């Protein structure tokens, strides 16, 4: 537009400013299947005139327009300070050179920073500011442009012809411009995560990453109103435990040993929480965790954005202080994508965390390997997968004030994807870095399960000395719809004076507490079965027998009798019994303090619920846990309860019976 009134020109410039703000100043040249470059003829004309008058060489229209806007806004501040600040916030935020924040992020930040009461007033305010600024731009450029400049010179500047000035080139001329800031709460990192299509993260311990990924994913989904939205690719690299041991700690601990323990604990927390988060997403082959056996040449993140940009954020770790005190250096990758290649090299030299789990058969008290499956592809509900998985269970305990006390872990969304809000001793898969050989066998006293048990304890304590680890027994847990679990059970007295760290979510639990927790779980199971009883009469009979036997052990013999009678009827009616069970279940609910707050307990984990009276309670008695001997004595003196324990063990180990019952009992 070269003719017309100043009012028409100002209106056109205001509209171009609005279009640039909506797209984001750094993205006005983006061309994709649904986006074309933003037309800015008037802003380009003004920028060309201003640069020519100022004697500067700036290539590219984005850099030229930014140069004009920054100088003009600064001058505009002397005339209209509030509008100048608002325009700066909407176009540049707190960036000095390259604008890393998206248009929506800048808009949200400005909305919070400038309280106009409601959305309508806010929009009107910035539209008015753009109108005033557009009029000012015309006067600003005219005040510095000689009257006799020719249109040819203006066009040559716009096309990138150099007019040398004695001063130093503007920052925008540099090939790479970086921003730096403090990590603080990680808000900027989370924003980039929520906008990225692919991310590659290289860290040492990554202890805060899972919560940031969770927040970023929520924002990503909210932005487009889709609950299934996710990244195309997530690659997270950790240091191996061995390498982490050799890294000098940056937290300023006086005791190197304590620093090592802290690193290991944070590494465990980071690895486990990220693994659990990724596993909770729909199964994808390109959401992967890696262990780096080599110290990586950089620590940071590569964000691959939907518009093709690759933003690199490098982390500068401080010697002393919290993670929030670390610095980040951020820039867009070069055309040669040197940093992207560096991230790829780190990933390719690392080992996939999706380790192999042996699958096989139970031969007496031993496990025979038949094949291996990746850890992330087992125990999938409804998979109908066959075979047994080898597991370890470590019954952890300690002596405090002269008395033994069991130590159990709360299963939460930070450490588990199954059996959430249940208490468990330390359990885990037996996994191997190298494929197990078909035909290989191992038993309770062999190195394979012993090593896995020791690593499981080390993982939670961070200590090399895992205390006294000793074989206890074996156990089997049969699923109706996926692989069965064969447990090698050990006991471990943890070292005296060991400090339990909060993220491990391990607490001492007394026998009366365990009995109370299990009682509620039994009532919950019975109520669930009443609401959805099996149609098949034989299956229904077995299921209600299991529930009834458990009710007897918790002194609900009368309800147990009523349930079995109702289950045996030709047309079962559980309404009255269900109402009573519901009342009792509500009265016996238990709350437990977890790392992220209080949780309502759902009982004990798997095998420990089923074999509480056959494995856990007898062991507690041998080490002198208060209440264990008394409870076992009561069962021994009661013929009905004694028979219930024996019959439950028989039913729980009957594969035909347990496979037929679709609900967990």
Write a structural description.
With about 675 residues, the chain is of the alpha+beta class. The chain has four domains: about 5-170, no CATH class; about 180-350, Endonuclease, Chain A (2-Layer Sandwich), CATH 3.30.870; about 355-510, Nucleoside Triphosphate Pyrophosphohydrolase; about 510-660, no CATH class. It contains 22 helices and 21 strands. Strands 9, 10, 11, 12, 13, 14, 15, 16, 17, 18 and 21 form an eleven-stranded mixed beta sheet that branches. An eight-stranded mixed beta sheet has the order 1-7-6-5-2-3-4-8, sandwiched between helices. Strands 19-20 form a two-stranded antiparallel ribbon. A hairpin with a 2-residue loop joins strand 19 and strand 20. Helix 2 (about 40-55) packs across helix 7, helix 3 crosses helix 6 and helix 15 runs antiparallel to helix 16.
Topology:
Elements (H helix, E strand, L loop, with lengths): L5 H18 L17 H14 L6 H16 L4 H11 L11 H11 L5 H26 L6 H8 L20 E4 L4 H9 L2 E5 L6 H16 L8 E7 L1 H6 L9 H25 L6 E6 L7 E5 L5 E7 L10 E6 L5 H11 L2 E2 L3 E8 L2 E9 L13 E13 L2 E8 L11 E3 L1 E4 L11 E2 L4 H15 L6 E10 L6 E10 L12 E3 L2 H21 L5 H17 L3 H12 L6 H13 L3 E4 L2 E4 L2 E2 L1 H5 L1 H12 L4 H10 L1 H14 L2 H6 L5
Helix pairs in contact: 1-6, 2-3, 2-6, 2-7, 3-4, 3-6, 4-5, 4-6, 8-9, 9-11, 14-15, 14-17, 15-16, 15-21, 19-20
Note poorly predicted spans.
148-174
The fold-level CATH name of the largest domain is: Endonuclease, Chain A
Largest sheet: 11 strands, mixed
Proper CATH architecture of the largest domain: 2-Layer Sandwich
- Total number of distinct structural domains: 4
Helix content: 40-55%
Report how far apart the termini are: 78 Å
In one word, what is the shape?
elongated
Helix/strand/pairing class, anyone?
Answer: alpha+beta
